[in-house]
Each structure stands twice: as C-alpha cells, then as structure tokens.
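BUG: 3D viewer hangs when loading the predicted structure for this chain

Environment: internal workstation, default settings.
Expected: structure renders.
Actual: progress bar stalls at 90%.

Input used:
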Amino acid sequence: MQSNNYYLNNPLIHKDRKLSNASSEWVRSFSCEDLKPLIICRGPIRKEAMDVFDEMGINGYGILLSEKDSITYTNALAPELRSLTDPDRVHRVPDYTGANKEERTKRIQQIVRIAKDNGYNSIFAGYGFMSEDAEMVEAMEKAGLNFIGPCSYTQKAAGMKDQAKRTALETGVSVTPGVNNATSLALFAKYGKNGLEKCAKDHKLKVDFGKCKDDEEKALALLAASYDAGIDIIDAKDIGEALKQEAKRMLTEKPNNRFRLKAIAGGGGKGQRILQSANSYKGKSLEERVEQAAAKVPSLVLECLIELKTNGVGDNKNVLIEMNIETTRHQEIQVVGNGEWCMTMGGRDCSLQMHEQKLLEVSVTVEELEAAIEEAKAAGRKAELAQLKKDLEILQRMEEEGAVFGEAVKLDSVGTFECIVDGESHYFMEMNTRIQVEHRVTELCYKLKFTNPDDPNDFFIAESLVEVMALLARHGKRLPKPERIVREPASVEARMNATNQALQPHAGGIIEYWSDALEGEIRDDQGISLHNPDTDV
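Structure tokens produced before the viewer hung:
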C-alpha cells in the first residue's frame, strides 16, 4: 500500500467486504471468492476493480495490457501496474479493441483464449467501449465465462441506441423527437418495401419474414442477417442519403432548430455530429436554406461512423437523427437490476460539458431536493420553491421510467438511464450498459442493503457499484431487491480533461504542480496525482 493521502482519505476503499467472514449463513452464501476475473480495461477503473476484488476476497485476478502499455510496463507510473507484481497475471494483446470488425473479432477470441488458458472464469470490462460490445459479451457467454456486467440480451436491447429507443417507445418512456432507424429507410429506398425478400435471396441470407409483424421488423431482421453474414446490403452512402431526405423534412418543420446525428454504437460524446439549423444559412428561400443544411448530412454520417470504426463491411452503420434541445440539462439515473427486479439510485446532473465531454457531475437525489424544498419554503422563496418542486417531480418520473426500462431490457447488472431535461419535460436519450466514470457520485450518496426475505434482521450492505456488479454476476436472481440507504447528503465530481491552449482535446502536456488530496476527496486516475515513488514528483 502506498502511503499517500489518496489512500488515507479515500472513504470508498479498503473496506472489509468479505462476506465469507459474516456470522450469518445467509450472508456467507453470497460470497464471491470463487470468481477469478480477467480485467480487460485500463485506467482508473482497473485500479478500483483490483482494490474492490481484494477487499471481497477475490484473488487470482489478471489484467490485460496492450503492446503500447507493455513497452512501458516495467517503468509504469500507474499504481495498479506497480502493485500487481506477478507476471503470470499480466497478459498482452496488440491493442484492446482492434481497428475494424475483423480485428475486433480476432481480439475477442484472443481474450477468450487467454481466459481459458489461464484459469479465469469471469471477465470485467469496466467502462471502456468493450463493456458495451454485445458481440464480445455473447462470445464470453458462449465460452462459459461469467461477464461482470449486463448480459448480451441487455446489450442488444439497450446498448444500441436505435433498439433502445424502440424499447422506450413500447414501454411508454418519453424519447427525443427524431428518426431512429435510418438503416430501414435506406433499405426501403434501395430495394423497396416489397423487395426485401428478393434482397435476402440475392444475398443468400436466411431470414424468417413470417415472424415479422410489419415492414420495419422485416427490414431489421434482414439487416441483422447481413451483419451476421459480414456483408453490406446497404452502405454509409445509402444511409447518408436516407437521412438527408429525413433531415429536409425536419429542417423544413423546424428551420430554427439544430439536429444531432448519433451513430448507434457511440457513447462518451463519440460518434456524434451537430447539423446546423436551416436558418443559419443564407439562402433566399426556406427551401434553399434547407437544401444547404441537408447537403451536409452524408458527410456527417460518415464522420460519425469513422470515429467509431463502424464503417467497415458488415458493421451496423445505423445513425439516428434527433432534435438537438438547446436549453437543456443533461441528467442520468443510476439503475441496478438482476434480470427480474430493477431499481434506481438517484440521479446525476452532468450539464456542464465541453466538446461533448462531461466536466462536472452533481448528485440529484430525492432527499437533497426535499431538503431544499423545506429550506425554500421556510425562507419564503416562492419562485425557487416552485422550481425545486418541478425538479423533484421530473426526477421521480425519470427514476420510475428508468426502472421500467431496465426491467424491459432485463438489466442484470448496473446501467445508466440518460435523459435530457427541457423545462418541465424530459426525454430519454440512451442507456449506457456499463458502469460509468461518474459512478462515484452515486456511491457517495447511497449504499445498498440486501435483506434476507425470511429474516429482516439478517442483511449485508454494499457500498461499491463494482462490488454490486460482482455480486450480480455471481449470484444474479438469488439476490433480493435491495433498499437504498442515504450515505452522504450530496456529492460532486470534477473531471479534468487534457487540452491544448486553444482548449481543444490534446493528450500531451506536463503538470507542474499537483496538491495532495483533501480529507474526503477521492482521486481516480492512472498515477497522475500520486507522488512517483522513484522521483517524488
């Protein structure tokens, strides 16, 4: 253990989480010590997972290193690499994900082989994009490995933005206005609604159209078959043209509105582009301005796909277009489920962003808002009181919808139900089927109490979401629905992103001074804020 304020003042690590030490037989039955995870992510979440696994008595975990990381491994500053001294538990791959579909498939098989050859029985992928790769999760499941995160069914139903929006609409969840399935539109434009069966036959694709209730489902079934076969029946150009036509309609209806294009596999601000409003152009007529704006769509679609490396043959290239709500707050709800029950752990406001990257995350909980309402009421601040009451109502609606949506997609781990709030309205954007960087905000506000259904005095408490993920992966539907208990009244996360002097994202730079952590402050990083034991800087 390094003697640093990071460790001494961190209230979230170094707890006794070994359930096998409990006096209760029921509590002991939820021990996870037989898990042996291969950690396939990097960065702060890898260090956190190692800490939590140690505290839970989960030993023998291993980590994955890319070739780039491997070169600097022996002199690495990252504390997790310094603490894991057993070389047999460090495994190397060329990179973490692969540059295209073929490389990603190869990497998945390589990870499965590493796990099998070295006796790992589970996989932890953290909050990297591999954690939301349905193909990867499905491959792990088929190999008999326990994925510590949402199952492949949930990944498919909620992880892809188009399917998630369909599920939201079916379950009565409010969604952002827009077009959710450009790939179907592109198919209809290229082959006609009556030409889907001929397309399947021409490309030798097996599709059971009889099970489809409408043309939309037929198109989706045909597209799924093409992805499985690794062929393109439509390409980025087709999708760009289909979205261009839809953009014309939307720009005509709302010429002062900007619109957002989002590749369905994106996240963390990647795979998104803004389409400027029609009235930002200088055409003489609205028709001319709409044409100028819509002409940008095909190139923006391609940019979204290239950024996510989903522009290869056989990749799902669907891109959504939706209204960009300008005067908005970005709020997200922490969701936890075991495939049967689903519950929420309050919200986080992450409206302060730069370059689509979050800078500040502020807790939003029922308890915080109720306390603020009472304070405003006592002080006679009527306008503030009215706004706080609206905020509470919106939060409660988002939490209700988050739980309903989580149950609909059979969430069996942790996830985030992301919404935008506009005045008194809110709209579901997407569900992140993974733990997120900002999960600490929720952990500080709530802990979970799991109680024996036969004895209310028999229970255990989980304070870490990584711990909850391990419990759900190991025990799943045996876990009773927990009660959330207030831990701290509020919490805030400040995220520091490297930029150049123009405030554009930039990886380089030297930190000249860094203070020690304050009491109660938690720092998640890869060694930057720790004193280097070799140089003491």
